[in-house]
């Protein structure tokens, strides 16, 4: 009876399956349009400058890798690439370990001063980078790392640190007590419990933090720009690509090649981890 | 556990409790070093720096009280940048939230086979570094042979090429559109997360009651994910106020300061002085003023959220 009724009300013009196919086609068209600038970038990087200015189609008539060789040599993209990897890997390791430890004690333990730490963190969550950049630069200079990759790496750890701590704290606080107590009964130390029991349990957040910090470090612009103003040798890719543009604005082929090189690693990483990332982030937003 | 020591004086008990949690404090050390050095300290140091006339060398630092602020409030370029930061934010946040919500609602459909692929494609600009987007977009929008102008000319939508980044009237809107394009992917993920909190039974119930597709979205799903909208708006607004990289890499605030937002202004006085003496104290004052304005707005918003939630609760009761 209810079945008949609903069928009578919802008399679809086309079958749901056909509708989904139509929606998929429309979405595919939108997505092509959406990533057109990136497709164009890769395509231009494989053409010589004359072909780019001639505005031929997306598929290069005479593909060339000359742009990549020029970008790699003239723009020092190779060196900048390793600078960026150094900063990114270093900051990801430091941030993941320190924010998980801090999140763990804040989320699960009770100690004097816990509320104060939480309050300080909540107070700083929305501070813009323009507000802190001058003291950060000044501090790095005083520490003697104002013009070094170590300085960039350490200061990059501050970027989204607060959010990561809150993610870990929220996640850890929801894990049931039994596992931890069992470990305690077995005489496993606090540190070992954290490392072998709690951290593996929080894998979704660990992956999310790794991906987000990688994105942040790979993308970061203001800090590396400021630190490397006087020392071009330690530029990161973002800053290098930006400077290359300032010096060679006519060389569209070289610039698109440099750009393509600098997005490849993050895109590949993201394609591999996107499933965990979106799930982890979704879990975190929900929690 | 900590209360076993009831015989001691309060201070002794406090000492014992702190001693009992020593491993906890040890775990806090690495995080607190980063937090203290690169987040907490700069917030307070900025306020101190803003009271100095200072070029970056200690010997030159001179305490000038609130003089920087007095000068700031009279600087029309400061108010220009301040205004543009907020115009930029107020125009990008609603657009970004709306477009990403549409994407999320469509891609939340589990029966859509390729939805993971579409999500990834929409997410690609998020993964692309801003400096790269700056370059590619500058080329694409170029009035000389740029593909966008050529395309619009070919389609006869334009009579002559538009100078998207060189025209003071167009530049901020062009940047806003690019910004929205870049960041919609992230906001979409937040919306998708929000949509997952809507129980499947609800959709079933709607089906039985004969409520049609868009009505379900509008009258059932939307009210349920509204609390998320406030959080998403807040996160989006904060990141829009931090738009420095995109603008610096595309226009450096030009032409004629038409796209100069607060962070570009700060950068110009502190670091991009090109021959002139850097004014770190003055730039700090601008940063503090801007930061405090944002924090004020954040607090206002938090109170607004509380108010709304309380009202909801009383309505529900």
Automatic annotation (TrEMBL), chain B:
Any single GO CC term annotated in Swiss-Prot or TrEMBL for this entry: plasma membrane
Family per record: Belongs to the binding-protein-dependent transport system permease family.
The protein's name in its UniProt record: Sugar ABC transporter permease
Pfam families attached to this UniProt entry: BPD_transp_1 (PF00528)
Keywords, comma-separated and alphabetical: Cell membrane, Membrane, Transmembrane, Transmembrane helix, Transport
GO biological process: one example: transmembrane transport
Membrane topology: Multi-pass membrane protein
Annotated signal sequence range: none
CDD domains: TM_PBP2 (cd06261)
Keyword Transmembrane: yes
Transmembrane feature ranges: 25-44, 86-108, 120-144, 170-195, 216-241, 282-305
Subcellular location: Cell membrane
